[in-house]
Amino acid sequence: MLCSLFCLHFQPAIVLGFAGFITFLHYNDERRAVPRGQASSNSGCGCGSNTTVKGPIIGGPFTLMSTENKIVTENDFCGKWVLLYFGYSFSPDVGPEQLKMMSKAVDKLESKHNQKILPVFVTLDPQRDTPSHLHAYLKEFDSRILGLTGAASAMRQMAQEYRVYFKKVQEDGDDYLVDTSHNMYLMNPKMEIVRCFGVEYNPDELSQELLKEVTSVSQ
């Protein structure tokens, strides 16, 4: 189902207030990390090193907003290989490591193998991850990463289409964390999900797996 066009209604980014909350959020990130070669009980696709995702089971149309305040739909990705990561900028450990890995793997593919893959970050926390906030956040990792956000209803719709588990867990006051499986998908130029990756890859391993998928199409 196509997500309807939306208006941005965000609250200002919330400053994390104290060290105890950071420690608790770190614990939750570690708890939900999916080791390479194992399935995630929260992930619809069962992310793992050898997981292959076929057909229309995962994925679908979407309408979101980029960090440049431009409307982005699935049609903008047609004809491109896309590495799609679902996360949130307030993740203190797993999220940043995944973005670093994504950046290094994509850079290696392009520089050593002349293979281009578009890295895309889809937030599961649109309340805090506004376009301007995401732009500044992703710039710290790699300017090639396309950040996508939108209305909460649009994000929930896309998460449902892509079988991404996430849950907002309210803390004291306005503080909250996002419990999620940190899914990363490889999409082929036909907008089909061909691989689902867990969080325990290093950049070299991820780039090798991506290269296998990209080159297998041309063989």
UniProtKB/TrEMBL annotation:
InterPro entries: SCO1/SenC. GO terms for biological process: mitochondrial respiratory chain complex IV assembly. One of its GO terms (cellular component) is mitochondrion. Coiled coil: none annotated. Belongs to the SCO1/2 family. This is Thioredoxin-like superfamily. It comes from Arabidopsis thaliana x Arabidopsis arenosa.
